[in-house]
UniProtKB/TrEMBL annotation:
It comes from the Eukaryota. Pfam families: DUF1091. Keywords: Signal. Coiled coil: none annotated. The keyword Ion transport does not apply. This is (Mediterranean fruit fly) hypothetical protein. Residues 1-23 form the signal peptide. InterPro entries: DUF1091. It comes from Ceratitis capitata (Mediterranean fruit fly).
Length: 179
């Protein structure tokens, strides 16, 4: 098979795959788990979901920082899709969060998540962080995911946060998507 035939086949498969994935029409949080790994450094004041309607759930959390200012933050974001248990799906990114805040376009997936997260949180500035981290009444909307090819199903987003080269907290966010 020559290069042009391989390219044509690859293009066809990609277009076919993208056409089989339908647009997200409904999405909601189903569960939330927050674990502080270093309680003398930081702890969760609250970590909760509140049902507002049948398919509308708000996420709220507050992390109390005990050793401020924090100017070295690491972040690992991994997505999972449920198939007989949660299996890795599409994304596993580890980055220096302070650098990411200065250059958001370098990591497109995180930038998409951060675009709607910053509207509901106080994480809308670069390092250092010298205050509690708050996410208040974050509600997922299908329009937030128009840039991502995400099929219907159940997902888990695991966010591991570290500071000074030591993991400090894990947040597992469970989401359901359907057409």
């Amino acid at each position: 098979m020559c290069c042009s035939q391989a390219f044509t086949l690859l293009t066809f498969l990609l277009v076919f795959h993208l056409h089989t994935i339908q647009c997200v029409s409904r999405i909601k949080f189903t569960n939330l788990q927050c674990v502080a790994l270093d309680k003398p450094f930081a702890d969760f004041a609250y970590c909760k979901l509140k049902a507002l309607a049948r398919d509308k759930v708000a996420l709220s959390l507050r992390v109390k920082l005990f050793q401020v200012p924090v100017n070295n933050v690491s972040l690992n974001v991994e997505s999972f899709k449920k198939y007989n248990g949660y299996r890795p799906y599409l994304v596993n990114v580890t980055t220096n969060f302070c650098d990411f805040l200065r250059h958001k376009k370098r990591l497109a997936f995180l930038d998409i998540i951060f675009q709607f997260l910053e509207k509901y949180s106080n994480i809308n500035h670069t390092c250092p962080f010298d205050h509690d981290i708050i996410v208040d009444k974050l509600i997922l909307m299908p329009k937030y995911f128009s840039m991502l090819p995400v099929p219907a199903g159940e997902y888990r987003l695991r966010i591991v946060v570290g500071a000074y080269n030591d993991w400090k907290a894990v947040v597992n966010i469970f989401v359901q998507i359907w057409e």
